[in-house]
Every structure is written in structure tokens, then in C-alpha cells.
Amino acid sequence: MAFAQKLTHWICAVSALTLLLPAMAADKEAWKSRSIYQAMTDPLARTDGSKTHACNITAGLYCGGTWRGMIDRLDYIQDMGFDAVIVAPIVKKIEGCVSYGEAYHGYWVQDMYALNPHFGSPEDLLDLSKALHDRGIFLMMNTVINSMAYITNGTSPEGISTLPG
């Protein structure tokens, strides 16, 4: 889809959401009393429920956590006393491994118009939202528009234009 068409779709979607926000979003007073758990989706919530298979976070690689797996961890989050969750950025990240690892943390955005397939499907994200709200837990979405990324070898960024001077 051409960029202009994507932008038009995005603007229409945001415009439509602004009409619903007053009815759907909690106001700042409602948030003031909340304890917010910052969930790093990948290491927290492996879909298979495993807590024992190797997940070496210092290696910087995906561990297999998903939004579906996060639904299975809601008792854990709620039992710690949290009543709001902020999830790792949900949009598509760069694929592959760079010198710092993979984009398991949710940053290094590549496509603002697509969800991170490592974390699940659009339906999985909607199911997570419903499961949280069914428990009275607020959901906060983390947006990282300032963390766009491009894979290079670090010394020769082919295809990237630089500003003169």
C-alpha cells in the first residue's frame, strides 16, 4: 500500500478514535490511584506457559512471549497488587540480530502500521485488552514514534541518506 494511502487510513482511524476516546479512556483522576505494572511482553509471557526453558535476556534474543501468554500471567500481575498494565510497544520491529541483539523489548520500530508478529495477532491483542478490562485492570499502550530503526552493519549504512555538513 502506498505511503499516502496508509497515511490517509491512519488519519481516518485516529480521527474516528478521537470521537470514542471520551467514552473509552480513563481520565487522569482515574489513573492517579492505579499501580502500573510495566510488562515486557517477550520475557514475561511465553505462550507455552513455560517458566523453566532457557531465556537468556542478556543475549538480547526473543524468548517467545506473546499477548496470549500475557493473559495467562494476569493472576501473577494482579496478585502483586497491580491494577494497570503498560505493555511493551506493539508495532513491528526490525527483524534479525544486531550487535545489541533482537528487538524483543519492543523498541527499534520498523513499521508503525503493523503489529509485531512475534507478540501475536490483532485478535490476541484484543483478547488481552478484554481480559484486562474484565478484571478491572487498566491497559496503557506504549507508543515509540521516536525509536525508528534500520539494520546496518554499523560502519557502512548502505541506503541511508545523511544530511550535508
Automatic annotation (TrEMBL):
The family database entries (Gene3D superfamilies) matched by this protein are listed as: Glycosidases
- An example Pfam family from this entry, by short name, is Alpha-amylase
Q: Where in this chain does the record put each Glycosyl hydrolase family 13 catalytic domain?
A: 43-150
Might you name a Gene Ontology BP term for this protein?
A: carbohydrate metabolic process
GO MF entries: hydrolase activity
Signal peptide annotation: 1-26
Q: Does the keyword Signal apply?
A: yes
Q: Which domain of life is it from?
A: Eukaryota
UniProt KW keywords: Hydrolase, Signal
Q: Which family does it belong to?
A: Belongs to the glycosyl hydrolase 13 family.
Which PANTHER family does its entry note? Answer: ALPHA-AMYLASE, ALPHA-AMYLASE FAMILY MEMBER
Name of the protein described by the UniProt record: Glycoside hydrolase superfamily
User: What organism, scientifically named, is this protein from?
Assistant: Aspergillus minisclerotigenes
